[in-house]
């Protein structure tokens, strides 16, 4: 029997803050939706004062009693559950990589899983306007201070147990784990935990027999086709060996092909900087090249601490890019530093990523 209603005891009095990235994302959705910051500040005070009672969570609904000087109010926040089709797509993303389900079972939400779900059209985390607060108080704000207090404490719940978010989206832990089960009936975590069997060596070409005689179709470049077939075979072999299908859009795949098959580089019309970035760090390095981003305050604090520990020169910082004269390092979403140098009218990646900003700032390897 699925347990789709859960109750959580009151937190009591005490100052807390959302620590996890998904807990902070929840609060960001609350702040982005609100038109008045005053009720949010009052709600935070109510949450810290322990004025929120037992929190009940069920699909699409978060509710609690909130105490005030004047009265006691019944407060709720609604979040639209996922449809069955959305759940199918989300569970497909969970099962696509062994570490996703394992992380959820360890009370962690991988950013990669949330991003893959979003790419599949599944809104795992709430966005602007997704949270619908309601309260029996006479206040007209959305959210009122009582609903804001509930939302703040909900972020603390999500910190400790991200399965709360999945229950709000419609399914409990047992249902999600069962849904990540492959067709054989074996849990995905158990299947992926099995040792990977060595693949047999490719048979010698002579054992394959003679290739059939054929005339290429007009305009067909046989050499290019041969490279594409070899690439597809290598990709299939990697899928068999790792159990993971490479997640790449057409642009990424063109860059990957240009980086791995030099003969295709001119035909694919890919920017040379993108090819170099891929050769040095794959998809994460390409993302760093093409998409500046703003780290969270916690990420920024860690980056500044690492920079200070290396006694590095003062840098001009813009979003995730730290520039010292003609050198630059870019802080990636994976917590690594990517080295760059100015040249040929732009910034060029000059080496593999590093955990240490000092190593990245002095990396001059162009390949």
Describe the structure.
By secondary structure, this protein is of the alpha+beta class. The protein has helices at 21-33, 37-48, 84-95, 98-105, 111-119, 145-160, 163-168, 173-179, 188-193, 222-242, 250-260, 265-268, 272-290, 297-309, 357-361, and strands at 6-8, 52-58, 61-67, 72-78, 132-135, 316-318, 321-324, 327-331, 337-343, 346-349. A five-stranded antiparallel sheet has the order 1-2-3-4-5. Strands 6-7-8-9-10 form a five-stranded antiparallel sheet. A hairpin with a 2-residue loop joins strand 7 and strand 8. Helix 1 (21-33) packs antiparallel against helix 6 (145-160). The longest helix has 21 residues, at 222-242. The N and C termini lie far apart (57 Å). Residues 183-189 have low confidence and may be disordered.
N→C terminal distance: 57 Å
Helix content: 40-55%
> Main beta sheet, described?
5 strands, antiparallel
What structural class is derived from the secondary structure elements? alpha+beta
Mean of pLDDT: 82
The low-pLDDT segments are 183-189
Beta-strand proportion: 5-15%
- Order the strands across the largest sheet as they lie in space: 1-2-3-4-5
Rg from C-alpha positions?
Answer: 26 Å
Count of separate DSSP helical elements: 15
Give the number of DSSP strands.
10
> What string, H for helix and E for strand, traces the elements in order?
EHHEEEHHHEHHHHHHHHHEEEEEH
Net shape: globular
